[in-house]
Amino acid sequence: MTETAPTPLRRNPDYVRLTGGQVVEAVGSGMTGMALLLLTFELTGSSAQAGLVSAAYGVGHLAAGLPAGALVDRWDRRRTLVVTGLLLAVVMATVPIAGALGTITFGHLLAVALVEGCLASFIWPAGRAAIKTIVPPEQLGTAATVTQARMSVGSLVGPALSGALFAVGHVVPLVTNAVLYALAALGYRSVRTPLPAPERTPDASTGLLREIGEGLRWVWRTAPIRDMVAIGMVLNLAANGIFTVAILALQRDGLPPQGLGLLESALGASALVGALLAGLLLRRLRVGTVTIAVIWSMVVLLALMPLSPSVWWVGALGCAVSLALPAVNAGMGAFSLHVTPDAMQGRAGSASGFVSSAMMPLGIGAAGFLLEHWGRTPALLTYTALLAVAGVLVSASRHIRTIPRTDEFARLPQAAASA
């Protein structure tokens, strides 16, 4: 008996509606950081205060991440996406309203960034859970590559659009941002497939802290996810450290802001192309094989970074890495989505993201210190050595090496994720 091919995702109406809302939301999210940064500096004249506003988003996201995951596992996922989108629109709209009244303050902008970070913590786990309900297992790999492309579009289009609109009027980016978040909420609202809160077992705990602990314990007990998170911690520490050192060195050597902006755009464009190509790669090769090959390729490429301080050299190596990395993110993300039970989607996703990104601030923060006290080459080589540790870990993990192609996920039961 021949198996019936699944309906292409482009002909899955609810998937199109959901991802349409996510693309619009990603562009809005990509606009926010640049808009608040520019507006804060224009208001205060202080780069330090502008930096605090930028950092406030990360603080809010980090603080709310674990509770948000637990709450997403309690709530209707579609309602969570819609309400969060509308709340984000309202929060953004307070800035142009205050601008019209002449009452914008640094404290107001700081609060907006902090609240946006908290609210954004609900979008990703709720969207992740919604995709698992809407998309068949064998198409999760393709859906994950679309997710990577969506993120790349947001990081590529959002900041550029925000900068252009800021030249028209200082609060125009925030007006546009509010409209985009409202449109995203409408897209989420149009999804017709029921996305209810997962069924809870009779003995399920009701305490939020206890449920957060359940998510963390599930990640620890589930060997493939545990290995992914451990490798992600080292990878985030090393890769972010390398690029931060490289960019700070370029800035120290006199590269103008326009040059840094073009470099950022080139990296975003490469990531977008990589996301579009990732689906073809993941349908032909095992996810484990791709992951090992890409991480070791990163080690080799970034080990070459000290050879030249030229922006063209840094850009070429950075674009090569940005081109390859979406395949890993998509493949591992799709595998994690498949093996995670529906009742654990919010908590497991938030716990994994929280732990794997926990070392990122250290990597970024230490970069400036190492550059100033050790110099560019020793700093880059230190982070490259850490990146090689990630390569060793991923090569040694049997659980990751044996992850199959994404079109074979349907044969993997969720029980495969159990310890």
Helix content: over 70%
The rough form would be described as globular
What structural category arises from helix and sheet content?
A: mainly alpha
Assigned CATH class of the largest domain: Mainly Alpha
Secondary-structure element order, N to C: HHHHHHHHHHHHHHH
Strand element count:
0
Count of the separate structural domains: 2
Known CATH architecture of the largest domain: Up-down Bundle
Strand content: under 5%
Largest beta-sheet details: none
The count of helical stretches stands at 15
In terms of per-residue confidence, which ranges show pLDDT below 50 for 5 or more consecutive residues? 415-419
**What is the CATH superfamily label of the largest domain?**
MFS general substrate transporter like domains
Determine the CATH topology of the largest domain: Growth Hormone, Chain: A
From the alpha-carbon coordinates, what is the Rg to the nearest angstrom? 21 Å
Distance between the termini: 35 Å
User: How confident is the prediction overall: mean pLDDT?
Assistant: 84
